[in-house]
Write the structure tokens for this entry.
Amino acid sequence: MFERDHIREIEGYVPSVQPAAGAIKLNTNENPYPPSPRAMAALGTIRPEMLQRYPDPLSEAFRQVAARTHGLTMDQVVATNAGDELLKLALTTFADPGRPVGVVSPSYGLYSVLAALHQAPLSEVALTEAWQLPERTAERWNEDRAQIAFLTNPHAPSGTLIPAKAIERLAATFQGVLVIDEAYVDFVDPALNHDATPLISRYPNVLLLRTMSKAYSLAGLRLGYGLGDPALLEPILAKTKDSYNIDAVAQLVGAAALQDSAYALATWEMVGRERTRLAHALSDIGLPPLPSQTNFLLATSFPSNRGITARDVYAELVERNIYVRWFDTPRLRDKLRITIGTPDENDALLIALREILHQTANHPAMSEAHPASASPH
């Protein structure tokens, strides 16, 4: 009743289903392994006065650890409430309301929601058939007078990796602030030697987004951080972030998790092995995924599966208490995004998928039984 007109017209971001305990949850790209023992031990050191008093407004201890992790200085790091807050802060700090926001399509749905809240139109560039950047992406954004652009790399929801050289060309050409959302970068195959961190010393318009939610198994903590040139981060630190934006518990636990690098690396390696195994198995049963450098796979339901759709498969999995993600959007309606789970979770998924596809092969009309399949969210 009292909301502003443009807020009334916005369709907000709808998170994926949060199923009850006991479900196999492969729909929100969390790390299937628990936080590090060092992070959990840090929780036991919380003293009453740490909760009684306001936390460090600049999160200096956490930023120092993050800086050492990436070979940077503390003034090249800003701490935020997960990556989503950094997106909001970047938009607020660097883009005038009404000026276009550069994105690729498809992309993380929150980008468009934040742009709408900012009363900013989108400057959209469709990814190629290979889910890579078209050659004139930066030029298109410049022509539309975009002051900021968001790009997830590795890309979501495809899982593909855009090479660092392509990112550098984008940074060199784009005239606004380029936010590289690296939520999944820790899951990239180490053999590829992918590292965009050096870009921040060469391009003052590059802001790298990192989150503790995925790689460090701390999605419930809501902690992230940005990496960039000190001059780029200074107005966020001094002006646009909330005065005490990171709570004391998150600062302490987050720093402990970053310092437990051996544990984190071990979980990334386990996810990588399961990603390879699951990709081969999905291909074998007729649901081939795109090549992925993330902790999820985007699998395609081909017409060879006797007419069963990705939405049908999604609904059948929900009935078995297994949750993946289906998007009712262009280029994604025939696909399922599947988070890499533990070996047991992945095995249960594969057993269920084989049953579903087998039943459909024997009963081609099965898809008609789910005319109102569960919501994609």
